[in-house]
Automatic annotation (TrEMBL):
Keywords: Heme, Iron, Membrane, Metal-binding, Monooxygenase, Oxidoreductase, Signal, Transmembrane, Transmembrane helix. It is found in: Membrane. The keyword Oxidoreductase applies. Belongs to the cytochrome P450 family. It comes from the Eukaryota. This is Cytochrome P450. InterPro entries: Cyt_P450 (IPR001128), Cyt_P450_CS (IPR017972), Cyt_P450_E_grp-I (IPR002401), Cyt_P450_sf (IPR036396), Cytochrome_P450_Monooxygen (IPR050665). It comes from Digitaria exilis. GO terms for molecular function: heme binding; iron ion binding; monooxygenase activity; oxidoreductase activity, acting on paired donors, with incorporation or reduction of molecular oxygen. GO terms for biological process: lipid metabolic process. The keyword Cytoplasm does not apply.
Amino acid sequence: MPVVAAALAAVLLPWLWKALVHLVWRPASTGRRTGSSWATPYRGDRRDAAAASGESLDRGSHDTTTRVMPYVRAWTSLYGKVFLWWSGPRPVLNVGDYDMVKRILSDKSGLYVKPDPGPSIMAMLGNGLIFSEGDVWARHRRVVHPAFAMDKLKMMTGTFEASAREVIIGAWEARVEAAATTKEATVEVGEQFTELTADVISHTAFGSSYRQGKEVFMAQRELQFMAMASMNKVHVPGLEYVPTKNNVRRWQLQRKARGTLMAIIEERLAAAKEAKGYGTDLLGLMLEANNAGDGGQRVMSMDEIIDECKTFFFAGHDTTAHLLTWAMFLLGTHPEWQQRLREEVLRECGGAGTPLHGDALNKLKLVTMVLYETLRLYGAVNVMGRQATADADICGVKVPKGTALSIPFVMLHRDVEVWGPDANEFNTLRFQDGVGSAAAHPNALLAFSLGPRSCIGQGFAMLEAKTTLVLILRRFEFEVAPEYVHAPADFLTLQPQHGLPVVLKLL
Ligand code: HEM
């Protein structure tokens, strides 16, 4: 009997010790070292709190924190802008202070890295820009960067315009014209903008091969839904290799995406060999920069290029669709601003038939201001994560190695000390002297993040959104439909939970 007890103890003790360290000692020690109260909340799953606040908002209320981050909101009023909380045994530092945020996001030394996104997202995106780190990230960013230069983006205006005319304007005109007596139609615009941004990214990334590109993106979209569905499930190590129904489908989609992208890229490389060039779309520009390494060496491998193509779709598709959706919401509930924008559009870009130019779009000051205010109140990313790779001191707060850092953009964008007492109001005029002068902190608008890892596609997204809004404002007058329920929800990105129905009238 004593032998059995000894054997059991030998097996269980290391296990118990590990649990003690993880669940008691580490939380207590981290709490002491950061100077945070040991009494800060210890909790398991933040979705419980979010689900608890299911009520919709008044459509004049822009305080989305009550819906998407009720727990951080409550703790901020109790503990201040910077406090520690626990996700199971993991310490998470809430960083609601702008100076600390700037320090973290501007870091170039690798002290703060992105958290592990989990196997399903990694399997979907591989080593693309979003999740790579260190030298791999720097090498990729060098190759991808030229494709997003402003002169190249301006050349894409025609593509943005053609897609918006086909997917949005044509479809909406047909809907209104079909309503013979009322001459108005109610359209759920969120889905339509998602279709538009998929079309735009397929055309701008792959030019003449856009049909194959769109097939890849459809496969990616299904993979994205599968990844999202698996995100909240417990990860059983090794399960990703078992041929379950889901895994078999995932492998099929991954094979399809890779095979099609490989064929498109090989076609481009063959065309370049025959001196026909790589093409002027995002893929072509990226391949051109890729061949400009020392001595004509390729900087990225074929697989890395494939990962970047998938990344464009993942990063640039839903985000831009939601920007357009929320801008329509704000303009549809503020008719005076809708009219002011329309007047500016007609003055700078001409009437409905006039083709658009990148230079005219750059003169649209009011449109830009409304887009910035939309990004402040309804930015796609609510919270951004980082992780300390070593012990650090962030503006006087001691952060032990391994601490997760949670940067709540949605709270920071409503900080009254930085944005003023009307931080929760729609006040476009705060941006009239430019984005850097809109608040008490020069980098207060964080929707595209800041520092070396800021969004590479921000110019692309703004130009696409402006082009689409110009075409809509020239052709339609609109208001948010009476049946709309204002329920912003965080499904990886911020979106209206029940869609956005809008009543359209032809001008
Ligand atoms: C309104 C639209 C968009 C918003 C709000 C947005 C937001 C962001 C944010 C917050 C980040 C930083 C993520 C982090 O550090 O964890 C980011 C990174 C990134 N975005 Fe965007 N994005 C938008 C559109 C686009 C578009 C259109 C593209 C490409 C076609 C794009 C490509 C990327 C890439 C590749 C990164 C990673 C950059 C790096 O780490 O070097 N985004 N975006």
